[in-house]
Every structure is written in C-alpha cells, then in structure tokens.
Amino acid sequence: MKSMPTATHRYPNGWFPVACGDEVTPGRIFTGRLAGEDVVVYRTRRGRLRAVHPYCPHLGAHLGHGGRVDGETIVCPFHGFSFGPAGNCVRTPYGQPPPRASLTHVPVIEANGLVFAWHHESGAAPTWEPVTLPSEGFTKPTTFQITSAGHPHDLVENLIDVGHFGPVHNTKINLVSTVPEGPFVKVVVDLSGVEELGFFKERGLHRLGSLKEVRGQAEFTCSGVGIVSSLVSVPELGVQLAQVAALTPEDPGRMRLRLTTSTRIESRMGAALAPALSLLVRFITKRQVKQDYEIWANRRPVERPKIATGDGPIMLIRRWAQQFYESADAEAGNTPERAGTRRAAAATITSTGSNGRARHDAPAARNER
Ligand code: FES
Ligand SMILES: [Fe+2]
User: Which residue, 141, 110, 115, is CA-closest to 263?
Assistant: First the structure.
C-alpha cells in the first residue's frame, strides 16, 4: 500500500474555500489564497460571483491591489483596462478596440456561506462538486476563521480520529460508520453515544453535556479533503444544525480553517431561539477548533503511523485521500477519476465506538484503520 503524502509542499486537488460569502459583497474585490497563489474573488453590481487569477494579461498588475468593480466588469488599477464577466477585455481608456486578452477564471461555487474555488495541480477542470447542506428555514450562517500551521488532511482525519476526542476535547463520541464513495466520505455519529460534552462538563453542567437520552444523529460528508459538511438532527426537539468546516492549504504548511454554522428550530419560538443556538454552537466549536489547532500546529505528520486497536479508521481515510494527490496517482499511472472509482470499489464500512471496539465489514481494510 502506498503511504499518505506528508510533504506539506504538495497540494491536494479539490474544492477549497477562498472567502466567506459576506466578504464578497456586490462591487467588492477580495483576495483569497489557495495552494501558494492569490485568487481574486469579486461580485459584480448585479451579484454575479467570479474568481480569477490575479495578474492582468496586459502588463501584469495585481487586480486585488487597487482594482475595482465597475458595473459588471473588473477594472485593472494600472492602465484601466476593463474585463467582462466572461473574462475578456471589453474596454480600454485609449478609445481604441480592446486587445484580444482575457483573465483566467478559477471555477467557484458559493454554498452555505462559503465561496469554494477549484484547485487542480495539472489545471484539470472540476469533475465533481461539493455536497451542500439545506438552507431553507435555517438561520443565516455565522462564520469564524483561523489560520495555523498544519497539513491539508488534518480536518478529515480529525473527524474520524475517535481517540483524540477524550484527551483533546474532553468528550466521547460514538462513530457508527465511515463510508468512502468516490471523492466523498459519509460519516455517521450516534448522538446518544455523546456521553459528555467537555464545554458543559467543565462548567459543572454535566446533565446539559450528556446526550444519552437524545435520539438523533449527526451525518458528516467530506467533499474531498478540504470540506466537512455536517447535519445534526434531533427530531424530538425539532432542532437541526448545519455546519461546514473547510480547510484551505494556503501556503506550504499554512492552513486556514473557515467554519459556518446555521440552525433551524421547529417551534413557535424557533425563529427567535435559533440565532442564539447558532452562536452557542459556534462558540463551542470555535473552542474545539482551537484545541485541535494547538495539536496540529506543533505535530509532525507521521507517514506510517503505528495504528492501535481502538483508533478510528485513520488508514481507510488516508487511502481514500490519496486520490487527491496528483503525484501519488501519476506514479501509479492513474487518472484521479480512475483512482477514485477504483478505491471507492475497495472501500469498506467500518464501525468504531469510543469503547475501542472496531468492526470491519469487508476484508479489504482488515487490520488497517
Ligand atoms: S496591467 Fe492591467 S491594464 Fe495594464
Ligand atoms: Fe478535534
């Protein structure tokens, strides 16, 4: 089996956030960063979202430094050339026909309060789209972001690394299943297995921190290594919580995590209570993220970890994640698409509880979590 790439200068392919939606209001230009490059994101006055490589094809000015949006065009700060929504130069201040020149677009998708840009080391076009969460009836997403040292696959690995929830978050979780499928992984957590939430426990509010009597579950979907979307449903309470955590490799070893949270409460007071619940959940999650970051910022990725009985399905996730690393597939002569299909076919369903017992339903992953 090939090992997980750990060199932090290798960027994975996929969708990664380059901005929060509210950072790119109509008429505004925002410079995000992805895989060692700036990405200029802007929204036209009519609300069309565009992302482009930053340098003007005329004489190379950076559009994110002094550029402006004029109606449906973006105007370069250096000689004032205007570029339309399709990227082509539509006007110059010279009163002459514009040159045949065009900005280079970056594919973008806006969903759940985030702007995702596509990155592919070979420049290939997107072959899949990230999963989006329902927004109907949910509060407007609240956002939070933080940067730190780290590795691109820290986020997805963190989700299924059941062994760290006790020591790092003072919490226990019950991971029900982990199912890779193409560029996605679906992870289900049984909420009644959440015996203690560290945030409440540390404040002496043990009862609030226990979800033992709550019937509900949390469904997580990883869309590539950059995005984890979660939908938590507690039907008895009429509560739903939608959260997207997304990690962007900005530069070698430097990650930016963006998190959006929105809630929906089906009750007479729901509309009034949901924003407060969103803020509470964001506060608790922010605290957890900082706990993770303390570890991520100071750890060294271990290429061949010594996995123990009781660990989560770490090796399953690492095998799945290989499809996003260009050179790993190039070595084996596979296209990312072929590799994704082949690995999905070999994927297994794994059940792992915080009690350390693990069950593997397919022999492909036996002894490798
Ligand atoms: S460099 Fe952009 S218009 Fe000249
Ligand atoms: Fe964590």
Answer: 141
CATH topology of domain 14-119: Rieske Iron-sulfur Protein (2.102.10)
Testing ligand 1's pocket by substitution, the residue of 56, 65, 74, 88 carrying the most ligand atoms inside 8 A of its CB is 56
185-244 pLDDT per residue, tens: 999 988 775 655 555 556 555 555 455 556 677 899 999 999 999 998 887 778 889 999
Of the listed ranges 15-24, 43-52, 161-170, 342-351, the least confidently predicted one is 342-351
Burial class (CB in 10 A: 0-12, 13-18, 19+), 204: exposed
For the chain, residues classed under CATH 2.102.10.10 are: 14-119
258 C-alpha vs ligand 2 centroid, how far in Å? 15
ipTM confidence score: 0.97
Residue ranges of E strands in 21-141? 29-34, 37-43, 49-52, 68-70, 73-75, 82-83, 89-91, 108-111, 114-119
Sheet holding 114-119, edge to edge: 14-20, 114-119, 108-111
| Separation CA 198–CA 169 (nearest Å) | 6
Q: What are the residue ranges of CATH 3.90.380.10 in the chain? A: 127-369
**Residue closest to 291 by CA, chosen among 257, 246, 242, 253:** 257
Q: Which atom of ligand 1 is nearest to the CA of 63?
A: 2
Q: 137: which 2 tokens?
A: 């009836």
Phi-psi region of 123 (alpha: psi -120 to 50; beta: other; left: phi over 0): left
State pLDDT tens for residues 259-286.
999 999 887 766 777 888 878 888 888 8
